[in-house]
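Input.
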Amino acid sequence: MQVDSQYSRWLWFILIVGFILRIAYTISQPTDGLLYGADGGDTAWYLANGWGFFSGQPHGWIRNIPFYLSTLPTAPFYILYAGIFQQLFPDEVVILTIRVSQCVVSIITAYLGYRIGWRITDDRRIGFVACVLLSFHPAFIIEPSNIATETFYIFFLTMGFWLYIEYVIHLPKIESNSRLSPTVWIILVGIAFGLGTLTRAVLLLFPIGIVIHMLMIGWRNQLGLWFRRGLLLLIIYSAVVLTWTFYNWGMWGTVIIGSNQLMPAIWRGAVQNDGTPAQNDALLLDDPDAVNPDSCEVDCKYQHSTETYVEQISETINENIGGFIIFRLSELAKSYLQPHGTTPLGNVSIREELIDEVKDDRAFGDFLSLLKTEGFIIKLIVWGFHYLGIGFGLIGMWLTRKSWQLTLPLIGFVIYTTLVHFVLLALPRYIFPVEVPLLIFSAVTLVTLWDKFRRSATHLDATIQ
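Output.
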């Protein structure tokens, strides 16, 4: 009991410090102009379409930014989320309020990492280390300040894993009494993964893998039971995801499951010279000079047909299938090797600076000058966490191989994300969510190494004595 109390105190300390770091970074970031697109990214787009969703207008302008609800290209959760805050708060505090709420969600994710790490190993120390890694990883500290989908996507994903591992898989194994039946927990799992898909549609097919995992568990003596549970999970998950489909069908007469950006994402993954929307329009149109559609009122972009994308994707692959495979592998590898979260830390690329130093064969003193590069130390920490997660995470997967019933969903998500982005456009921010399971497995490796070190030290002391 004393050990449990000690872990609880330290856990609260880590979570509070992690939350303070997130808040400190968040309030240090500028808010001026973001509603108007000053960041040059997606922030103003999410906010404009969020405002538009609650405006009662099918299309229009807000803060000189167009919204067009019948052609929303993304899953709706974050748009709704950004829109609600604009209904409740004045413009000058909207950005800060969204960021602070995301700090809360982010630190809850770190706590869920603690629960998952504990349950897959029955070792609370591993859960604690996983919580430390998720609380203090600089990318996870930085991400809540971004008006983007990553924070909530990772939260819903981690929530789904926690509910599934702890209450659907782990709890029956230890025959512990729960106030809720397995049916209720499966419903909650379906809702969590469904909300994840409504945040980032790339998760769309992953629950099928969860059902396959269920069938693997019950293959020998409980196949019927686990089949019914898997069917229930798919029904609940589909009901959540299809709310967006029914909305678009009823309002606009279009059929969208998750997102309508599947073919554009595959196309961008196939071509090597994609760029801005106008550049992409030029590549997709027969007349490259006609990059603005005639008579547009609000959404001055072409809505290219699926056939156009399929035709160009087929041509690209058929012309050089070997080159296509090499290109996809190269882009995927770069997305894994480049950590997400370094862009806000300065415009200078430490990697490019280091490569230039090596190529130019400069003196040792010139290497030391890298320490003065903008954001060098914090970027170095980001890189350290990133590569520790990949290396130690893979080792941790191997160390827990005998507990596959508990760990396979996490491993499966890493594999699923990798395979999906071999086909779709791959960017570091798209690969970033796999760092949650990788850091949890890294905690397994770190605790294992610590135990081996302590045993070696104890043996050495006994030998000396």
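The mean pLDDT is 86.
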